[in-house]
Amino acid sequence: MRSKSIIFQTSSVACCNGVPTTTLSLSKDCYDPFDPNGNITITYDIQTWTTRGYVGRVTVQNYYQFRHVEKPGWRLGWTWTRGEVIWSMSGAFVTKQGNCSLFKFDPPHSCEKSPVILDLVSEASLENRSEGCCRSGVLSAWAVDPSKSFSSFEISVGSMDGNGNEQPPANITLMAPGPGYTCSPFLDAHPTVSSLIDGKRQVQAFRTWKSTCTYSIFVYNKTPLCCVSLSAFYNPSITPCPTCSCGCREANQTTVQCTRDKLQLSTMESANLLASVQCSDHMCPVRVHWHVKTNYIDHWKVKLTVSNYNHDRNYSNWNILVQHPGFSQSTEAFSFNSSQLPSVRYGDELALFWGIEYYNTELVQSTESNVGYVTTDILLEKDLESFTLSNGWALPRRVYFNGDNCQMPLPDTFPMLPNGSSKQSLSLFISIILFLNLLFW
């Protein structure tokens, strides 16, 4: 067999601040190398003119392959540049009406110079809905479910400029649900074309502007969310998550629950709250465990387990991204949905796993006595030209949970084959394993 040595690449996500990457000296750090084209695009269309302004449509589209927008959902903000007001909205709402004292008989929906907009819940009444709206601000990752990766709302804007020279809002901000996103200014784009009458008629927006929002862990500067532990059938020891992966445990070793910084949510007040997690040496809310389970003649099996040590929250519509060379072959997950993603920069393949609807899409929170978890067996076909159990080849290179990079153990702590320095002993050991599997069959 030809053995591949294990190589770990550090992936970084930085914020481009809306500037094209070709103009930045450090453009290679302005995106996630596993998802270089990922972003959230805000599209602002002027659809029709009215006697007091125009009617527009705003679409929030998630193009991230494996980073979704979870509860409590996105918050969109901007600043009007010409004193505009929002007469009415459908499919979303502004959190504050603002000072509308100038309008005595027909007050607008919002007179705020810098409105903050939220999506409506899925149970919103019919009169308040618009096409493609009302997902409670939750957007699926593009690779998981494109049909649920966007949300739209309609907006009637009062404009002082009636000659068609309207300008888009400025200072676009996006919370999805926490910070970390930086948005470019609205730029002119090709007018959006929509289909009517079962696709037989196409209509075009009068004007279209687009803003691109990118996520950066450096802008967010948050404590890591997850870590990875490893084990294998050929080694009795377990490689735990690195100590203090997501912070350090408090001094009192007798406590069951510990506190750690909470993910910043929809209000500034929530940033001061502390989340309660199961006390551990790693102090991570989420742990991903990869266990090399069995080795067959032309297949090998892995058990993947995701545990939720958070006592305060469930993780809905979670997903796991794993970088591993074995995913270049046929792969079957028994209890998760799965899909292979193209590897842009690295030779190893990427596999995305997520829950099955009505079965395990909810990673439930822990209690005093039980840890919430989801698990699956993964069967991978062997490529005899590259497959080996030595040098950590069977273990993942990189793991992401909900788009966040998980803390990996150091390679020198990985579970290794016994007598790994002896090629003869290694060949004998693998032959015995294969023989025992044959007897089992």
Give a description of the structure.
With 441 residues, the chain is mostly beta strands. Helix content is 5%, strand content 36%. It has two helices and 28 strands. The protein has helices at 217-220, 423-440, and strands spanning 40-50, 53-62, 75-79, 85-90, 92-94, 116-119, 150-158, 170-175, 181-183, 187-188, 193-196, 201-204, 207-215, 226-232, 235-239, 257-261, 274-278, 286-295, 299-308, 315-316, 319-324, 331-333, 337-341, 349-354, 362-363, 372-381, 398-401, 404-405. The strands form seven sheets. Strands 1, 2, 4, 7, 9, 10 and 13 form a seven-stranded antiparallel beta sheet that branches. A six-stranded mixed beta sheet has the order 15-14-18-19-26-22. The radius of gyration is 25 Å and the shape is elongated. The two termini are 24 Å apart.
Name the shape in a single word. elongated
Structural class: mainly beta
Percent of residues in beta strands: 35-45%
C-alpha end-to-end distance: 24 Å
Helix coverage percent: under 10%
Biggest pleated sheet: 7 strands, antiparallel
Radius of gyration: 25 Å
What is the tally of helical segments?
2
* Total number of beta strands: 28
Helix-strand sequence: EEEEEEEEEEEEEHEEEEEEEEEEEEEEEH
Low-confidence sequence ranges: 1-15, 17-30, 263-272, 420-428
Mean pLDDT: 83
Subcellular location: Cell membrane
Protein name: COBRA-like protein
Keywords: Glycoprotein, GPI-anchor, Lipoprotein, Membrane, Signal
Membrane topology: Lipid-anchor; GPI-anchor
